[in-house]
Amino acid sequence: AKIIRRLAQVRALLRTQKPHAVLGTGGYVSGPTLFMAQRLGIPTLIQEQNGFAGWTNRLVSRRARAICTAYPGMERVFPADRTFQTGNPVRPEIAAMASHPPTEAERSAAKLALGFDPNRPLILILGGSQGARAINHAVREAEATWMAAGHQILWQCGRFYIDELNAQFTPHPDRRITAFLDDMVAAYTAADLLVSRAGAGTLSEVCCASAAALLIPSPNVAEDHQTHNALSLHDRGAALHVPERDAAQVTGLVLDYLSDSSKLEGLRAGARALAQPRAAQEIVDHVERLWTWKP
Prior knowledge:
Blueprint: H1 2-17, E1 22-24, H2 27-39, E2 44-48, H3 55-60, E3 66-69, E4 83-85, H4 92-95, H5 104-113, E5 122-126, H6 133-148, E6 152-156, H7 162-168, E7 175-178, H8 184-190, E8 193-196, H9 200-208, E9 213-215, H10 225-234, E10 240-241, H11 250-258, H12 261-273, H13 279-290
Parallel strand pairs: 1-2, 2-3, 3-4, 5-6, 5-8, 6-7, 8-9, 9-10
Helix pairs in contact: 1-2, 5-8, 6-11
């Protein structure tokens, strides 16, 4: 009964607003809207952000006029003649990094601006706005070893963990713990290696920033899509992938890669090759084409 009511509400909204096109990004909210738009003859476009297509997007793709994807190989799931690899939109300042990967001099200057020693490696930890328990636990176990090796840590732990970690650790010039990071361009530029979850937006930024990344996907997401995202980069030499159950391996992997600049540069080159800084414009271009599309 609920779905019938929702479809009726969507139908009324679409008839009132009379959109020229409808764009959906997946999930339970976009499904009824795309379905009803297709029933009413309104052109639809899907933007699949992840390396694994959700059931909603798979279902409505049959009648969608264009499917914009973030990763290669998605034509195995969607109609190949209407599938376009555009990438995911990222903030303009991050997209701009794709045309100018950070030099070593710029990396050193960014470290200094963030209050770190410009001549020693910096590990960037990204836990997201809320934080990632498994990543924070792994870093808690590893940080003494990393710092003993002369490495520095910029640890974005999330708002749920900042008080706990500040109470546990005494201040140290080689370790900065923060709930949020306001300047991601500076953080990406300064980092020699980052440890992160594998959300679609983050990975698109990693590629545009030509960042060397170690990814620990969250297993607690719909259809395990973060693992598929991480493997899409890992299989192309663009990132390291460590399942959450093996997060203890992060300590040694970080030391291994920070001791070998050729390994870091390999990851950066792989990420750079997957960057799609014009994603937002390309998606808009596809939306505009829907207005003149003829079956």
